[in-house]
Amino acid sequence: MSEGEAVVAPVGPLKIEFCGEWYEVAHPADFHIGRESDLVIDDNPYLHRRFLRIYEDFGMWWLANVGTLLSATVTDATGQVQAWLAPGARLPIVFAQMQVLFSAGSTTYEFTVYSSQDYFNTAAANAGGGGETTMAPVALTTTQRLLVVSLAEMMLRQDSPGRGDIPTSAEAAARLHWSMTTFNRKLDNVCDKLDKIGVQGLRGGKGNLATNRRLRLVEYAVATHLVSKEDLFLLERNDRENAASTAPEDG
Questions:
Q1: Secondary structure of 206-235 as H, E, C letters
Q2: pTM of the full predicted structure?
Q3: pLDDT class for 241, splitting at 50, 70, 90?
């Protein structure tokens, strides 16, 4: 080391929770997440062998997307600050708790990163300080929220971050007792509403298939707490209301 060169102290370790299992990332680790990595997510052929990388640089931990096709949704614990990590992008791990969600094929995955260092105070950002971009709350109608819950049901029923299969449009429509026409119209309305506030990956058109749109909607909704476990009662209520409306009358 030359005279006057700054000494960067090793950063504190990270802990990662996925499917009830814990992993530790400590200096000077170079940690990968994917199909064949330090953290093996799944044998899903749609998942990159190495998709995400956690490493040290400039005295901080960084999360990088080293894949070529998939993107990830990253948020703080409150869901108020979120980023879309596209292939080739990276971001510093600045929160004490950070959620990472991504989809491969018809499955959405989630894991949580815990850091001993909290560089960014989310509460201050929510109060209007710091200059970070936050997502304003989105007002959904009851049926729009019901649609999102039907798609995110498997993710919402998890006790710890992990994986969940996302239903097809036909499966979700049947779960809701709706026609495909009704389901598609309401899905369009939800995606249009979120697209207008800047949520990426939901706009229809060439190269943006309906499957990708549904998966992206689930990622965003779960990561930002747009829906939660408390909303699962909407499905049960919808089942009861449908059963009552189709029950034969006495006499």
A1: CCECHHHHHHHHHHHHHHCCCCCHHHHHHH
A2: 0.82
A3: very high
In sequence order, the 6+-apart residues with CB closer than 8 A to the CB of 202 are 191, 194, 195, 213, 216, 217, 220
Annotated domain spans of the chain: 14-126, 142-246
CA distance 103 to 219: 8
CA distance 181 to 65: 37
The helix-helix angle for 180-196 and 142-156 (nearest 10°) equals 90
Sheet with 39-40, edge to edge strand ranges:
39-40, 31-34, 52-57, 60-65, 90-92
Comparing CA positions, the residue from 96, 60, 70 lying closest to residue 81 is 96
Token couple for 148: 């999102």
- Going by their DSSP bridges, the two strands 60-65 and 39-40 should be labelled as unpaired
DSSP 27: T
CATH of domain 14-126: 2.60.200.20
Q: According to the model, what pLDDT value does residue 8 have? A: 57
Residues whose CB falls within 8 Å of the CB of residue 22, separated by 6 or more in sequence, listed in order: 15, 16
